[in-house]
Amino acid sequence: MPTHPCSPPTAIVRMADAGDLYTSWRWIHDSHPGGVGVAPAAQVDATVAALARALPDLTDPQGLHHALTAGGFSGYESEHDLAQLLSRTFLPFGLAQQLHELFTRGVRPHLRIQPSPRVAQVPWELIAPDAGLRLVDIADVSLLAPLSIVHSPARPVRTWAHTRQLPVVAVLDPRVPGFRADSALGSVLGRMAADCPLSRRVASYAGEGRLLPDVNEPTDCFRREDVDREWLGTALREGAGRLVYVGHVTAAAPESGQSEHAELHLACAADSVGFAEPTRAHRPLSAKDLLLGTHTLTAEPARGADLWPIPSRVALIACESGGDLRFSEALGLVSAMIAGGAELVTASRWALPTDLAFQRIAGTAPHARPLQDAICSIDAAHDVPDAVGALCDWQRDRVATWRDERTIEHSPVLWAAFATISTS
């Protein structure tokens, strides 16, 4: 059956770890033949290790400094070499041939990828099938949501088409109790001015009556002390079209096997009801809370999906907010958002450098705001019908700028961290 003339060819790409890495793909409507590729275990391990050396490692006191000044993403040539290595290892030859054939015809397909846990941090959009050519240049790329969660009978379904006019719930750099602005769970964005790009976006939503919290000035939306789990639940239950979170996430370690312990750091006090252990004066909101609600915690427990009905689109802009993809049983924050009703979630594969880190470590100009620019671009993409296409357009623009400018503020160390997981 031919592909619908208004729809791009779409391939479902699934990966499985069995020592070697097995990759299978099939095209929707059988527009092209499917296939299977195998990458040897030793090659996969070496390539994954090379990628890991390029990423910010927050467990190492010098990890962020290395990533921004000497790692694989710190310069164009070293990054391009890494991107070609990723492509040679992970893009099956048969699929690459089909993509090349479509590219020469001016057709941009959509690849929906389900990576295995071992390769969950691979920035698929960035891999280079040919010199100077990235996968996102020739295809739109998104990740598949876990089928077990998407098809759960208890999962509520909320669609952008029916909720797009509802408010944007914005949790922007919340003030975490017990942590100063310059501490580990301190400010991500720093002091915000009314004329900066993100403040202007906040002001536009407020002017349209589409913003929660209700603020008098756009800067009042940042570093709030009241955006805790109770406030979030109330805001979501009133009806929301989107959720935008910018702040801190503590990802569960993959070796723990407990992805549900991933934690979102709101302005919750330590006496808040939840499964996560308190830290100083603060109790994080965990994926387990979102999934189980107050089950076993209160005399009259409530489901997580009832306490926090998740809107159709969610942006989790925080370090390794998409870390549950590194688990064989993904029950982290992304999965919790989808289980709660989201149909599309944008999250990060690895730790994100802040604008201050770019300035202090890498020496970027004070007016350079790569993180804030990324937040604005992701937020804008989530506000249009084809969010995946808009996000890929943004990353294509970032690729072109990185190729031309080759300066650290344009490095994919930041923007390639973001993946979009969708249910359809």
UniProtKB/TrEMBL annotation:
Q: Which Pfam families match?
A: CHAT (PF12770)
InterPro entries the record matches: CHAT_dom
The highest taxon in the source lineage is Bacteria
Q: Where in the numbering of this chain does the CHAT domain appear? A: 82-419
Can you say what this protein is called?
CHAT domain-containing protein
This protein's species is Rhodococcus wratislaviensis NBRC 100605
Origin organism lineage = Bacteria, Bacillati, Actinomycetota, Actinomycetes, Mycobacteriales
